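Readers of this paper often ask what the protein records in our data store actually look like. Such a record has a labelled line for the sequence and another for the backbone structure tokens. The tokens are whole numbers drawn from a learned vocabulary of local backbone shapes. We quote a single record here, exactly as it is kept in our systems:
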Amino acid sequence: MAAHEVHLSAFTVVAAGIFTPEIFQPKWMFSQGLLTSAVEKAAKVEAITPNVTSFSADWLRFVCLNNQIAISTTLENALPSLKDLAIGIFSSVTRSSITAIAINYEAHFEIPTQDAWHKFGHLLTPKECWKGILDSPGMRNIQMQGARSDKLGGSINVSVQPSVKMSPGKFGVYILVNDHVDKDTDLETFDAVDALTTIWKQSIDRSKNIASALMKLT
């Protein structure tokens, strides 16, 4: 594996609000034209209850709770399908049901050596200030928040942690970019479909660029 190649990655569209999980079944999605027959038939349902619906099918994983919907894929060529499914589901609920959305990008990157791995952690979280406070301090999680460059409410949030997905003897980092959009204080309602459509391409590109820029520091 080449240095800094993505080991594992996923994109997830998240919506916060008030939902009825039992509605969002694979059969219902197929009946609404949101899933193909092949994907619907391939669905492996884990739960359909008043409090949670969860299933995996082909390119997607879907989880709906009473206060959140999360739709994810690990396949980059499935991103158009992810976007279409999210828009279809957002369009099926009342506009006031959704109060915020996010596009999350998460990836695990392998780092060639343990020394480079430690150097990256020291660069992001200098240890000098911890002398005399902790013995052998090490970075477990760092979170940073940035302002949005558009006129939408919300923020760009980045988390960096040691990866737990590497094979024994390998070293890596986990990066999560959370592109969060919520209702602007000047708006009476939040249009989730419009927000997702507006940020989609920029969000995908920006998230990968952020991860790439961080990995260039190693």
Notes: The first helix runs from residue 26 to 31. The helical segments are 26-31, 37-41, 79-92, 114-124, 192-215. The chain has a mean pLDDT of 94.
